[in-house]
Amino acid sequence: MATLPVRRLADLGTSAIGFGAMVLSPGMYGEVDDRRAVAALHAALDEGVTLVDTADGYGADGHNERIVGRALRGRREEAVVATKFGFRIPEGAQAHRFPVSYAFGELAVNAEPRYVRGYAEQSLRNLETDVIDLYYPHFPDPQVPIEDTVGAVADLVSDGLVRHLGLSNVTADQLRRAHAVHPVAAVQVQWSMWQPVDPGLHAAARELGVGLVAWGPLGGGFLTGTVQEVAEDDFRRNLPRFDPANLRTNHDRYAPLRGIAADLGLTPAQLALAWLLHQDEHVVPIPGSRTPGHIAENLAAARVELHPDTLARIDGALGRFAPEGAGAVLGG
């Protein structure tokens, strides 16, 4: 079995590149069957991945967590299992809505403390495990102070159901407030060559010793250089940057990056991941793929060293244009 370089999210050690399991549920990137999904996750583990990221809101009725649980049967000790909560609102609970840049305009969560234990217990059943290694509220609840949600997760840590607290899609202020209640191991944040991290959040994470888990590190697959169109049943149809006209424009704009990758003998995806790994020693990207060959290619980026001159060339190319379409890629 292969091994990957290790990085630290606060005091939690993981592989330098993790695996984003969202792609293993139907309706996210088109259709996929459970057999192929399990095989993909096994391929990631075989290549040395330890951090496996899922959420109770991916797929219908906890499908994504259940796929992860099935794939980890007999291999649980190999994985750091991270999951998120808040989207699977219990019957009778209020939906707390907030705007997003997707075509459907808004999402809804409920992260009230009284529901947090129930979310965790259902995730534990789905994942077929007795502990969640890293547990995140998926989005801050617009009607619940982040301190209250974090306090409920802290209770789960005290009771041994959760090992580490994470936050997802938060501001620097929310991170600071949450960290004052309970230590935060990691913040999950959208970050890639076509979506920069918020500088204030990055600075706060560094100051507090909090790791960063980068969702969408390949821009929803765009940065592989292979996405020419997306199918009708693909979630990316809701995202402005994947509008057919925008997608064609963005493909042309990112040609210089593909040229740099070719000069280095790397795939565009490897360059995107290696570049991200060079931005902070405590960032862990979580690309997802259903194809074992692509998984192996992506993970090889963990061993790529980019010369400072190359990094300057990449940053220069990125500074000369901006992608077409609103910024959110996928709700990590």
Please provide a written account of the structure.
This protein is of the alpha/beta class. It has a single domain (6-318), classed as Alpha-Beta Barrel (TIM Barrel), CATH 3.20.20.100. It has helices spanning 34-46, 63-71, 113-127, 146-158, 172-181, 199-208, 244-253, 255-264, 268-277, 292-299, 308-318; strands at residues 6-9, 12-15, 19-20, 51-53, 80-85, 96-99, 106-109, 132-137, 162-168, 184-190, 211-215, 283-285. The strands form three sheets. Strands 3-4-5-8-9-10-11-12 form an eight-stranded parallel sheet. The radius of gyration is 19 Å and the shape is globular. The chain starts with 5 loop residues before the first strand and ends in a 14-residue tail after the last helix. The mean pLDDT is 93.
Give keywords:
globular; 332 residues; 11 helices; TIM Barrel; two-stranded antiparallel sheet; single chain; alpha/beta
